[in-house]
């Protein structure tokens, strides 16, 4: 794009119109891709932050003490030898 602009500013004419059109189209596509990348990056960061906030709102899990029974073990009836 720069050689076409230099020629335009020196002569006031654009003799290589297809080159200028291609350079302009590539520049517009690169700006569009850059903008889309910024948007996607900010969305990914905000979703990760929302997930962290959600995890922080959950109650902490209680750690079982050695030798203590868990709630599931308390609700489950004990198996006896004659029940089998």
Structure characterization notes:
It is a single chain. This protein is an all-alpha fold. It has helices spanning 2-11, 17-57, 71-75. It starts with a helix and ends in a 9-residue tail after the last helix. The mean pLDDT is 82.
Compact description:
With 84 residues, the chain is mainly α.
Rg result: 34 Å
**Alpha carbon gap, first and last residue:** 85 Å
How large a portion of the residues is in β-strands, by DSSP E?
under 5%
What structural class is derived from the secondary structure elements?
A: mainly alpha
User: What is the mean predicted local confidence, pLDDT?
Assistant: 82
Q: Give the SSE order as H and E letters.
A: HHH
- The helix tally amounts to 3
How many E-type strands? 0
Given as residue ranges, the uncertain stretches (5+ residues, pLDDT < 50) are none
Please estimate the helix content. Answer: 55-70%
Main sheet: strands, sense, barrel: none
Overall 3D form: rod-shaped
């Amino acid at each position: 794009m720069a050689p076409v602009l230099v020629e335009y500013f020196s002569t006031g004419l654009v003799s290589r119109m297809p080159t200028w059109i291609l350079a302009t189209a590539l520049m517009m596509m690169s700006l569009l891709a850059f903008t889309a990348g910024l948007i996607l990056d900010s969305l990914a960061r905000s979703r990760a932050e929302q997930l962290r906030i959600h995890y922080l709102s959950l109650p902490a899990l209680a750690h079982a003490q050695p030798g203590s029974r868990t709630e599931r073990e308390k609700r489950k009836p004990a198996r006896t030898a004659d029940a089998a």
